[in-house]
Amino acid sequence: MIFKYKAIEQDGTARDGTIDAAGRDIAVAALQRRGLVVVSITDEDTRPFLERNLSFFEGVALKDLVVFSRQMSTLLEAQVSAVKTFRLLGAESENTNLRKIISQIADDVQSGISISSALNKHPGAFSAFYVNMVRAGEESGKLNEVFSHLADYLDRTYELNSKARNALIYPAFVVSTFIVVIILMLTLVIPKLSDILLESGQDVPFYTAVVIGLSNFIVDYGIFFLIVLALGGLYAIRFGRGEAGKKYFDELKISLPYIGDLYEKLYLSRFADNMDTMLTSGISMLRAIEITGLVVDNKVYEEILKNSGELVKGGSSLSDSLAKYPDEIPQIMIQMIRVGEETGKLGYVLKTLAKFYKREVEGAVDTLVSLIEPVLVLGLGLGVGFLLSSVLIPIYNIAGGI
Fold first, then answer.
1. Domain ranges of the chain
2. Which pTM was predicted?
3. Which fold has domain 160-402?
4. Could you tell me if 126 and 102 are in contact, meaning their C-beta atoms sit under 8 angstroms apart?
């Protein structure tokens, strides 16, 4: 059970944190062995809802984890004890949430819990991949090397995610601007201009009638349309959180033209990078496949890896297991993994594949951005131009006929 405590150290310093123990008395005894005077101790599961340490609120930015892992590797390599390392990093961290988590981890480690078990109490901050990597480092006695591998891996992940995210900022801005401009024109500009046309009593072209009808619909029923749109969005979000919804949207991601190819390369890069990092750190093949399936972040590939793990457990090679999914796993990847298995250099091959697909993703993102930017700008200009011309041209015709 997890208990939250408030205590005072021998020098009078107040401290609070959490401790994992079988019962309240055992938790108090463990705290007293640390030289703490317990002021209060509460079962975390019985506290008010808003005070619970829910993992949902434990999210830590990827860049903060990169810095944390790098610092852990450096301090452990310098022979600094684990407890002192966590105390130092907890005091220096600029992220308030991470500082609190590190402080709790330090308390747990000081009470005798392993580092991996202490990290595992904070799933919102440390993934199953991260925890199992640390556990492998504890078992092999190469904890500082594992944290270095984690820092390198997270750094690569952060770089790739940042590139994709930053590349979408400009297109998102253009699309948002386009929508706002069109709505303002249809609700403020077009109604005033359409009044002039209707007062003239002359026939209007078909495309002008369509624009005026669209403008009237948005003015009269726009609020209802927004409500329906909001309800549809909430339903989509709720559906997407379920297993069936997640699988549907994940299948949709990799089936879209061009975008699907980009997502596929991203997942293949993540798969190869995860496998390489874990195998290099001494994690078994079966465990590496299982964890990679959990962190690849796509239900389709998660199912592929789960099934492949079962086949590997039955004696099949990784390459033969993946070969059963030619639509999702490229033949070149299967062949390279087979070569790595035959030569005993699977880790090196996976690292090469991870770098290759990372470059492919970066190239695809750059190409997509270079294509989408002019298309969006052109679409914005044509949309606004069409709306204005559909109303202004008839007005000019009326003015010319007077």
1. 2-53, 59-126, 160-402
2. 0.66
3. Receptor-associated Protein (1.20.81)
4. no
